[in-house]
Amino acid sequence: MSESKSAPYFNDAERGVARKLIRAIRKRGYTIRHSDGEDLTDCAKMTEGEIMALLSHTEQDSLSVHDAQGSRIGGFALIGQGPQADGEELIADYSWRGAEEGSANEVVMTTIWNEVVNLK
């Protein structure tokens, strides 16, 4: 499976943000599961290009973040904003498992989000 250049819902800038998000998750040793609202795909053994090829075929994609034991840390909701979008709004929301503010899961997810949107 190769990355689709004609994916209908994300433009080039949004695909760049999605790629940056995948890299930020993986470099911390976490795995990704992708959902397009219909199918759930475990991406642990997939290449970056294979994960990118899953994205943008529906109006919303979700990437859930999992630790080495497979426990869910949190997730990111990705919604393409149209052909003129600059990619800043692609990550529509993110959440973490557990409700405690300042929890380890919140710190992980917020750190990843900040890195991707350059708010370090």
What does this structure look like?
The chain is α+β, with helices and mostly antiparallel strands. The chain is built from three helices and five strands, in the order αββαβββα. The protein has helices spanning 12-26, 48-54, 104-116, and strands at residues 31-35, 40-42, 60-66, 72-79, 91-96. The chain has a five-stranded antiparallel sheet with strand order 2-1-3-4-5, with helices on one face. A hairpin with a 5-residue loop joins strand 3 (60-66) and strand 4 (72-79). The longest helix has 15 residues, at 12-26. 28% of the residues are buried.
CA radius of gyration: 13 Å
Widest sheet, order of strands: 2-1-3-4-5
Largest sheet: 5 strands, antiparallel
Shape, per Cα inertia axes: globular
List the uncertain runs. Answer: 1-6
Order of helices and strands: HEEHEEEH
Give the integer mean of the pLDDT values: 88
Index terms:
single chain, 120 residues, alpha+beta, five-stranded antiparallel β-sheet, 3 helices, 29% helix, 24% strand, disordered N terminus
Helix-strand layout with pairing:
Elements: H1 12-26, E1 31-35, E2 40-42, H2 48-54, E3 60-66, E4 72-79, E5 91-96, H3 104-116
Antiparallel strand pairs: 1-2, 1-3, 3-4, 4-5
Helix pairs in contact: 1-3
Briefly, what is this?
The chain is α+β, with helices and mostly antiparallel strands.
